DNA sequence: GGAAGTTGTCGAAGCGCTTCGACTGTGACA
DNA sequence: TGTCACAGTCGAAGCGCTTCGACAACTTCC
């Protein structure tokens, strides 16, 4: 119907169900072929400034957005990253949230969206997403030493990034804080101040039982550092809840009165721990030195600001996404441990002469 | 090439990049038409038991999974729910995580996956997902009184469920705990015990400034209940961190010494609050009665187990998904406030005679 | 014993996009 | 002035699935 003037409602909010504008509509609107619109959008072929302007005007006028499914089908790329998150309401939920936030933000920067997968769904979720082509890459948090969710992906070359390091990472990209080095830093700090008896108060027993990668690596680093620095050390898992913490503290002070320094790897236990120590007459730092592994904001807002190795959730999350993107570009798989940093805030001092 | 025997590798893990089996492959394998395979999968037409068996065997042998993009394109349904989550590392992160977990699990029960959207992305994220047909429905957490993210959806009929209640929900489905009734329950509990001066220690100031729906409704309910029960009440926002909490407690005890009961709507403040009260000689419950609004596990693991109205994250999350599903079935939009329940654990007792 | 269902299957037409090859001008170069 | 290269555009062929209409082959029922 050339010659017939076309009326347009402008980019008025189109009612749902009302047919969304397609690339063909835009093409008609701009007087070009659909493929030309596609090339304007993707930039994969040169387009004259004039044509581009007309197409862009059409897009704006119609309020056009490419259909994600059609795009995925035609291009074999979904622009979606699958993220396997531990959703159990465990101890370190805020930390997990920081990771998720960092990953999501970074994905958006690369024009990717995030599909949420729970680790409780197990291996099934991963293969559903991969085999159904629902995502272009997968990031797995809270990796265990022996990682069952990934068996189906071994040898497939599908882009995977692990946050944490399993026993045999093999072909998978990994990124995480260097927890072993972090533990060493904590022990060193206390040892330098003159402490010779140091205990690790760790995560809940379940975390160790499950073989959670980072907890094991921190514990191993603690034991290794204690040995090499010649200090005596003990390790205690700490359950959730005020009374759990109190009972661990009671037992520790009773059975190992020589302990003057604590390394704490359990965000949730920090606050009740400080309180329990105070009640028992071992106020921090005078009666007990404490070095923690926790996010900065938690270390800062305790009753006593804590010397702590921070958990660089933002850096790790960002790096994880970058590793995924580099695999999508076909680059080689990397494994990367971020160096720890300890911030001194005053919760560790030389031990009382005894 | 009929007559040529076909060799199959079985459901061996197919290398990524190696062409995934399609519905046509399954059809060939089973000796039927592709549409027949589709009908076996969807159950939308009757299929003989024999044919079904052959098709299912083919699916198993090839390890076939329908391609999500193709399916979305052809059926105009993605089997994905968009979930807008507040990812700021705010106070009540564990609670948010509970909601997310409940929603995700319930979505999976309905064979839906969850696309994670951050509220920091604002309205853009919502329209990207809706207009790009990336999801069939959207659930929005952490709704504000004046909800800007949803303007683009008004009048479109796109399925939306809000967790929380904005000033003008209009056409949108809503579900949440009845925070006003919850506040009333807390005040009633203290009033029945004989308290006549009650303070609300609430969320961080930012939460109120932002107009967060649930915080405002709780505060309004508190004020209304205080008035109607004839008790005097005051309201204090409480910032994050130990020292913030201490300073609020100091000021409260100094400026309103008549207060004998506290209603606390701030999970993160609970532990430092109890500690601060003890330090000031107002041990709970003898020197100060406390009723909280928080998840059960938090109430239980405090130094003093708390009388608390629980936050039924699981129920709300599940209900939100159900409301989304019912909209997808074309049913009417509902708005629903869940009744609060108070569990007595001993942190509130009659005030000292004074 | 033919009309009128049922039941089970097939073929083909899309869904909205990307991408490949082909085609038309145009300017550069010899 | 003929030849090449290249910028700019188009048309058509899929991507893998769903779904509609058609159509055999059986049943049923008067």
UniProtKB/TrEMBL annotation, chains A, B:
Source species: Humibacillus xanthopallidus
Top-level taxon in the UniProt lineage: Bacteria
Official protein name in the record: LacI family transcriptional regulator
A Pfam family reported for this protein in Swiss-Prot or TrEMBL: Peripla_BP_3
Alphabetic keyword roster: DNA-binding, Transcription, Transcription regulation
Segments forming domain HTH lacI-type: 21-75
GO MF terms held by the record: DNA-binding transcription factor activity; transcription cis-regulatory region binding
PROSITE patterns in UniProt: HTH_CROC1, HTH_LACI_2
Gene3D superfamilies the UniProt entry points to: 3.40.50.2300, lambda repressor-like DNA-binding domains
SMART domains, sorted: HTH_LACI
InterPro entries assigned: Cro/C1-type_HTH (IPR001387), HTH_LacI (IPR000843), LacI/GalR-like_sensor (IPR046335), Lambda_DNA-bd_dom_sf (IPR010982), Peripla_BP_I (IPR028082)
Keyword Chaperone set for record: no
Membrane-spanning parts: none
UniProt domain HTH cro/C1-type: residue ranges: 22-51
């Amino acid at each position: 119907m050339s010659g017939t003037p076309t009326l347009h409602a402008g980019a008025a909010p189109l009612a749902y169900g009302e047919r969304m504008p397609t690339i063909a509509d835009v093409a008609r609107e701009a007087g070009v072929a659909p493929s030309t619109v596609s090339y304007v959008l993707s930039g994969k072929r040169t387009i004259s400034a004039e044509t581009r302007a007309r197409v862009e005007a059409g897009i704006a006028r119609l309020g056009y957005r490419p259909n994600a499914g059609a795009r995925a089908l035609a291009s074999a790329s979904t622009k979606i990253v699958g993220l396997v998150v531990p959703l159990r309401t465990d101890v370190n939920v805020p930390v997990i949230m920081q990771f998720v936030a960092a990953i999501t933000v970074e994905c958006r920067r690369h024009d990717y969206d995030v599909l949420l997968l729970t680790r409780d769904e197990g291996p099934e979720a991963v293969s559903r997403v991969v085999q159904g082509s629902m995502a272009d890459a997968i990031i797995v948090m809270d990796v265990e030493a022996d990682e069952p969710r990934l068996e189906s992906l071994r040898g497939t070359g599908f882009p995977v990034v692990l946050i944490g390091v399993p026993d045999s990472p093999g072909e998978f990209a990994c990124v995480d804080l260097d927890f072993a080095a972090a533990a060493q830093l904590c022990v060193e700090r206390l040892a330098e101040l003159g402490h010779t008896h140091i205990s690790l108060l760790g995560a809940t027993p379940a975390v160790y039982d499950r073989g959670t990668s980072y907890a094991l690596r921190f514990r191993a680093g603690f034991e290794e550092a204690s040995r090499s620095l010649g200090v005596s050390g003990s390790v205690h898992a700490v359950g959730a809840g005020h009374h759990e913490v109190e009972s661990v503290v009671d037992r520790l002070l009773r059975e190992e009165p020589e302990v003057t320094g604590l390394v704490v790897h359990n965000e949730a236990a920090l606050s009740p721990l400080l309180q329990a120590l105070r009640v028992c007459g071992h106020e921090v730092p005078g009666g007990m030195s404490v070095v923690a592994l926790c996010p900065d904001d938690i270390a800062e807002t305790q009753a006593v600001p804590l010397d702590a190795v921070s958990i660089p959730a933002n850096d790790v999350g960002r790096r994880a996404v970058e590793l995924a993107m580099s695999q999508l570009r076909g680059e080689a798989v990397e494994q990367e441990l971020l160096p720890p940093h300890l911030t001194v805030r005053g919760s560790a001092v030389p031990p009382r002469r005894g």
